[in-house]
Design goal:
9 strands; about 15% strand; two-stranded antiparallel sheet; alpha/beta; Glutaredoxin; elongated
Length: about 280
């Protein structure tokens, strides 16, 4: 099933782009009374959504994207109305991309199947090994101080990049609380170094080679990387975007293992937990 997912998102984005371009051309040819006007709306909403995610650096979105889906429904209805009750090609394009495509993206592609995670509040962090600077680092060597851990999918994921930058912006407050920050992904260290160069903070980027730590923690998503990214040096598997906080010694005091890759905790949630730890 995840193999289908890995191919789906690229297909959905491509279909929205092609549908929007075709619709705009047809409206230019036939005028705004053309049924293709509705398809512009239905296909344009997904394109606008992904443009916002990629260009503006959005770290999280709503779970169900009601605006994108509503645009698909309204756009398809407009196409049918302007088609005098028939089912013109514009309505088919709008419905396939803006309704069916968006429903699949929101309720199938974006969601993860239930899984039993080994990282949860109250548990002790199980042992695993990461890579830093080409050397293996045991998790036990990383828990002497309170730590904020973020497992992210890689530079290919714009929400992950935005989330890392968000942490960079909050680094001074985290450092003031004496918290170590570990940013963990399976991507090559050179890729993480490129992301680190864009962060004005001494964060620690570690590699989870072959997603071994994610597998230990129960957060690995098989075939979670879009098809084709492997040609750029990424693994096929990826961790579920996960945030957890460990107290000194490795006890997990906060954990968020999302079931939707677009829904992630706000930094205010980390700080609330860290402030409670300081008062305990």
């Amino acid at each position: 099933m995840n193999r289908l997912k890995s191919a789906y998102v690229s297909t959905y984005i491509t279909a929205a782009l092609v549908g929007l371009a075709t619709s705009l051309v047809m409206v230019a040819r036939h005028g705004t009374a053309s049924p293709w006007l509705g398809s512009v709306l239905a296909c344009g909403a997904p394109v606008a959504f992904f443009a916002r995610v990629y260009v503006r650096g959005v770290a999280r979105t709503s779970a169900n994207l009601p605006g994108v889906l509503a645009a698909g429904v309204v756009g398809t209805a407009i196409s049918m109305a302007l088609g005098a009750g028939a089912l013109p090609s514009a309505a088919v394009v709008g419905a396939v991309v803006g309704i069916v495509g968006t429903l699949l993206y929101v309720y199938w592609y974006s969601r993860f199947a239930p899984a039993e995670s080994a990282v949860r509040a109250g548990a002790t962090l199980p042992p695993f090994v990461l890579v830093e600077g080409g050397c293996d680092v045991a998790s036990g060597a990383l828990v002497a101080r309170a730590a904020l851990w973020i497992f992210y999918r890689g530079n290919w994921c714009p929400l992950c990049v935005a989330q890392v930058r968000e942490i960079c912006a909050q680094y001074a407050e985290l450092a003031r609380r004496g918290v170590e920050v570990y940013l963990v992904s399976p991507q090559p260290e050179s890729y993480a170094a490129g992301l680190a160069s864009r962060c004005d903070a001494p964060l620690r980027f570690l590699r989870d080679r072959d997603n071994r730590a994610a597998a230990v923690l129960g957060i690995v998503e098989r075939h979670g990387v879009p098809a084709g990214m492997q040609l750029l040096g990424y693994d096929s598997d990826a961790p579920r975007p996960t945030v957890f906080i460990t107290a000194p010694g490795g006890r997990v005091v906060y954990c968020d293992v999302t079931d939707n890759y677009r829904v992630r905790p706000e930094p205010s949630q980390y700080f609330a937990v860290l402030d409670r730890m300081a008062l305990a």
